[in-house]
């Protein structure tokens, strides 16, 4: 990766045509017919989500806090740089240079989020080398999926990028299913959480909850401020309803009538995931609130029952409940988008055509994610990569120095 980082500047051009000497810095994306601008505040909001939000969200494991936060940053930075290179291939063939601006970095970082979602499924069971391979293989797969949907099915870029939740969840589930080792149900005795790790994880969830409206609205054309405002308000309402609903369902599903922190920290985000996948079709507050309510019920119920049943029935160990946090709400958002678009369409022919294309969008996304996830899983399952043994899974000491635990000679 160091070689890639050294070679990248030779192919990237961050200068504008008005500054041939290169003194004025980065290229501007607001000239002519270029895509709408991304502000520094929006970029920083998404950056906080990717680094702090996802990083702390997975620190719920008692002995895996260093790895959860550190490896998250590791994968995010590698995947973002790799996505920048891959997304610039078309520009390289046309202009013999890769143009980099704030928007392209942000889109690359959002593409890298698909790898972070998949990381949650295999968290604690892979080593850093396997994580590098995961990032290097999943990001091209996700960009390929975007290209297919944009070129063949003419999917809007905003709807295209929001499929990252579905793509990342199914990619990660396929990966963890192939990497599953027989007898590991009894071998993961370190897969536990306590009050301190749960608090740090809840902090990450709060970061995600606060900045999710920006995540869903950042790619909305800023030349139509009412649409961007609509996206922000819809996301907030969905998140607010999902937070209340997740708490209620957690209490009702508990034998003692108490809240479950692990359920709460993931399921309060379900509304943001679901409404993001249906953003362009949501125009009324009640629609966003209904989506948030349904997503929270689906996510909390799935979190409580699906994880253990998937392990017993399919040998699929989903560490961070990726299916319940991202997969199911993403599918719900896709379905809500379909229903709302058909409801708002007066022409039956247009409605049927949209339904066919929308279903094909989901089928293509799931097919590519499952296929590439399986190929990545078979590659990562090779003993050549020296995966951690069961007794060393979910343990920071396998990869990090602990001077205070060193034995004095």
Describe how the helices and strands are arranged:
Layout: H1 2-11, E1 12-13, H2 40-57, H3 65-87, H4 89-95, E2 98-99, H5 102-121, H6 128-151, H7 157-161, H8 164-179, H9 184-187, H10 195-217, H11 225-252, H12 261-267, H13 270-277, H14 285-314, H15 322-343, H16 348-380
Parallel strand pairs: 1-2
Helix pairs in contact: 2-3, 2-5, 2-10, 3-5, 3-6, 5-6, 5-8, 6-16, 8-15, 8-16, 10-11, 10-12, 11-13, 11-14, 12-14, 13-14, 13-15, 14-15, 15-16
Membrane topology: Multi-pass membrane protein
Protein name: Rh blood group, D antigen
Function: Functions as an ammonia transporter. May play a role in the elimination of ammonia in the gill.
What does this structure look like?
It is a single chain. The chain has a single domain, classed as Orthogonal Bundle (Ammonium transporter fold). It has 16 helices and two strands. It has helices at residues 2-11, 40-57, 65-87, 89-95, 102-121, 128-151, 157-161, 164-179, 184-187, 195-217, 225-252, 261-267, 270-277, 285-314, 322-343, 348-380, and strands at 12-13, 98-99. Strands 1-2 form a two-stranded parallel sheet. Helix 5 (102-121) runs parallel beside helix 8 (164-179) and helix 8 runs parallel beside helix 16.
Largest sheet: 2 strands, parallel
Radius of gyration: 21 Å
- CATH top level is Mainly Alpha
At CATH level 2, the architecture is Orthogonal Bundle
Report the β-strand fraction as a percent range.
Answer: under 5%
Identify the CATH homologous superfamily: Ammonium transporter AmtB like domains
In total, the number of strands is 2
Run of helices and strands: HEHHHEHHHHHHHHHHHH
Taking the alpha carbons of the first and last residues, their distance comes to 37 Å
Which class of secondary structure composition applies to the elements? Answer: mainly alpha
**Averaging pLDDT over every residue, what do you get?**
86
Poorly predicted segments: 1-11, 14-33
The number of helical segments is 16
CATH topology: Ammonium transporter fold
Domain Ammonium transporter AmtB-like: 41-382
Subcellular location: Membrane
GO molecular function: ammonium channel activity
Transmembrane segments: 46-66, 73-93, 105-124, 131-149, 161-179, 199-215, 235-255, 318-340, 352-382
């Amino acid at each position: 990766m160091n070689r890639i980082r050294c070679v990248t500047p030779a192919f990237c051009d961050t200068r504008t045509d008005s500054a041939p000497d290169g003194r004025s810095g980065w290229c501007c994306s607001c000239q002519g017919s270029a895509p709408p601008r991304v502000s520094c505040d929006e970029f920083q909001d998404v950056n906080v989500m990717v680094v702090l939000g996802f990083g702390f969200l997975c620190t719920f494991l008692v002995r895996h806090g260093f790895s959860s936060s550190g490896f998250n940053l590791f994968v995010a930075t590698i995947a973002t740089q790799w996505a920048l290179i891959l997304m610039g291939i078309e520009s390289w063939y046309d202009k013999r240079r890769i143009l980099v601006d704030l928007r392209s970095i942000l889109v690359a970082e959002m593409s890298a989020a698909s790898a972070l979602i998949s990381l949650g499924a295999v968290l604690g069971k892979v080593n850093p080398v396997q994580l590098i391979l995961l990032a290097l293989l999943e990001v091209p797969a996700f960009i390929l999926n975007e290209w297919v949907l944009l070129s063949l099915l003419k999917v809007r870029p905003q709807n295209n990028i929001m499929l990252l939740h579905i793509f990342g969840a199914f990619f990660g589930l396929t990966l963890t299913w192939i990497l599953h080792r027989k007898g590991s149900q009894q071998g993961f005795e370190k897969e536990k959480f306590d009050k301190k790790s749960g608090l740090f994880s809840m902090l990450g969830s709060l970061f995600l909850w606060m900045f999710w409206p920006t995540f869903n609205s950042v790619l909305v054309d800023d030349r139509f401020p009412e649409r961007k405002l609509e996206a922000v308000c819809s996301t907030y309402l969905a998140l607010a309803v999902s937070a209340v609903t997740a708490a209620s369902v957690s209490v009702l599903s508990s034998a003692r009538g108490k809240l479950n922190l692990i359920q709460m920290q993931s399921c309060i985000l379900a509304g943001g995931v679901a409404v993001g996948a249906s953003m362009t079709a949501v125009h009324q507050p009640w629609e966003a609130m209904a989506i948030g309510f349904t997503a929270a019920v689906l996510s909390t119920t799935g979190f409580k029952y699906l994880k253990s049943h998937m392990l017993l029935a399919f040998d699929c160990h989903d560490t961070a409940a990726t299916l319940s946090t991202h997969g199911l709400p993403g599918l719900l958002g896709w379905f809500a988008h379909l229903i709302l678009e058909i409801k708002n369409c007066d022409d039956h022919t247009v409605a049927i055509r949209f339904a066919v294309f929308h279903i094909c969008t989901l089928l293509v996304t799931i097919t590519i994610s499952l296929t590439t996830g399986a190929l990545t899983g078979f590659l990562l399952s090779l003993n050549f990569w020296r995966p951690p043994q069961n007794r060393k899974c979910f343990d920071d000491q396998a990869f990090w120095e602990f001077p205070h635990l060193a034995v004095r000679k």
